[in-house]
């Protein structure tokens, strides 16, 4: 839509870096678009997201947006993944239990105090009857998040912090999956205490030691 | 719609119990309707369920059906709850771990080999944007199932099989909730091995003992 910014910064007379006219590299355009999508989603949720608006705010043509993300769902999922990547980073203290507790706490806060919770539950909801969205959801979001968590548990398993023989993929369902369960069917609240109980139950086991 | 059956059984000449004309007691009508709904759902899923069909097959007027269940969702949820009550009964061997393993296995089989899995994920999906359905889902289905499981864990906790201090409500999310997570976002399959891993992780804990 706009080509008024460029990948080639030109120093302006006041010393600030300015961009001249020209084509921006595709990766910059893509990053700008995803950044714009993320900002919209974390402030307003899915209702605020349109191709029109992203095109305008990111200075990208709608044609380009549609080429990369053929649906609102795909656009939302990739934008969301990037926007929460830092918030959902696992700390690395060397203590898997502490790191998981911290990250799960951040996840719960994100889900309960920003539009992210509603965004994800709506996308998961729609994906039950929309096969394309279901595939996008896994391809662009959930499979990556699962892998990041599983990788972390695998490292901890190699250093003996997790018992050998434990299938680390199952742990994802018993921690984050348990949170999603309460978000999707809110019989019980999603709280910090719940997150801590999830970790305690799973790490210590629920039978007397 | 039909009053050709009655709550008062009349022995027929061949000795079989037959029903004469007259009004059936409301609880019989209700039970017949729920039974019909359950049969439809477990064979065909939600798509086969209409008020018309239940009225015809159960010999109940549509007016009566609407009085009790003002929406297809409500009708489906109560019919489904009754139809799976026996299948999802917890055995009582005195060994909580064995009983949970058996019941969770039955649940996984129900979800993966009958239309029940698709039925529930569709209802959960719709309930993300349909507030009335969300309330009905919890009121007519999930809150009852949660309570049954929590009660079972509470008994086991009193006999010392579950550590004191464990919030038994959280266990529901780490077992059945984990299964729902994979049903709703199928990055990984729902298998018997998965169910067993869920129980092992939670009962034994994932750190070295």
From TrEMBL, chains A, B:
Renumbered residue ranges of the record's region Disordered: 1-26
Keyword list, A-Z: DNA-binding, Transcription, Transcription regulation
Residue ranges the UniProt entry marks as DNA-binding: 50-69
InterPro entries associated with the record: Homeodomain-like_sf, HTH-type_TetR-like_transc_reg, HTH_TetR, Tet_transcr_reg_TetR-rel_C_sf, TetR_C
Domain HTH tetR-type, residue spans: 27-87
Pfam families, A to Z: TetR_C_11, TetR_N
Comp. bias (Low complexity): 1-15
Classification via PANTHER family: HTH-TYPE TRANSCRIPTIONAL REGULATOR RUTR, TETR-FAMILY TRANSCRIPTIONAL REGULATOR
Protein name: TetR/AcrR family transcriptional regulator
Source species of the chain: Arthrobacter flavus
Taxonomic path: Bacteria, Bacillati, Actinomycetota, Actinomycetes, Micrococcales
